[in-house]
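Example record used in the benchmark description.
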Amino acid sequence: MPTPIITDGSMDRLVRAPKVVLPKDQGLFAERASRFDQLAAESSGMGDYMRLLAQVCRAQSAAFKARTAHSVSERAIANSREHGMPPLSAHVFPRDESWHIDLRDIVAAVQQDAGAMTPEVTATLKELGTLAETDHESLDAIADRLIAGDSLVEDGSSIPFVGAALQVYFTRLASTLKADSVSNCDVASVCPCCGMRPTASLVRIDPDRLNYRYLVCSLCMTEWNMERVRCSSCESEKDVAYMAIESNDKPGLGQAVSAETCDSCKTYLKIFSQEKDALVDPIADDLNSLALDLLVDEKGYARTGPNLLFYPGHV
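Model output (C-alpha cells):
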C-alpha cells in the first residue's frame, strides 16, 4: 500500500492521498494545448500533428467553458453507490445534444486556421461540421463505436475531433459530481466515473498526492489511485515490469515515460513521472511516445487503454 505523506507540518495528523480526483480545473485543456505546443516545437517528425492537436485542445478549452452540464440524477448516483458501478457509464449513458454542439464549436475553432492543414483534415472538418448540423444519428454512431473500441477504418480521420468533443462533454459532467459519489466502483481497472479505460497512469508530485500513482481516464479526465507495481488491467503484482527507450542523457527508466508491462495478461499501459518531467501530460505525451508503443507491441504486449485523440495510421 502507498505510504501516507505528511503535508501539513504536524506529526499528529496524516494526510492520505484521495482515492478519486474529479476534473474540477477549467484550465485542464488549455494546459494540454500548451504541452502539445511545446512537444511540437521539439518534434522532428510529428510537429504538424502536435500543432493540430494543440489547436484542438484550445478549442476544447473554449467549448468546455461555453456551457454548463446538467446535474447527474440522484437516481444514477444512488445506483452507482448501491451496485459499485460508474454513474456516467459511457457505454449506456444517454448523451444529450450538447456534445454535438461541443463538436460543432471545436470544428469551427480549428477551421479558423485551415490554411495550415492537410487536405484530408480540411475535408474531415467540413464533413464533421455538416454532420453536427444535419446528421446527429451518424455522429452518434461514430461516437458509440469509439467508446466501444470498435471504430471503423473510415472513422479514422474523424476520431481526434469526435473524441475531443466527447472528452469535453463527459469531463463537464464529471466536474459536477462529488468524489464520494464515485469512490465505490467495483472494477479498479476502469474509470469509477464513466467506466472507460485509462489512457495512461501518472505519478504525481502534488503535495497531497506526492509519489502516488493515478490512472487517468481516456474520456472524462477523472483520476483514480492504484498502487504502483500493480497491473492496471488484471491487477497482478507478480509479473509487472517496465520498458523504456533510452536516450543519450537519460538511460532507461530515467525517462519520464515507461511502459508498465504484465506477463500475466500480456498487456501494457504507459506510466508517466512528474518527478522526471513536471510538465508531462498523459494525453499529449502519450502521443509523443508512439515509438515506445511500437517497441512494446513488438515484444508481444497489447495496449489496454485508448487515446481518444488518435487513430493509428492518421498521424
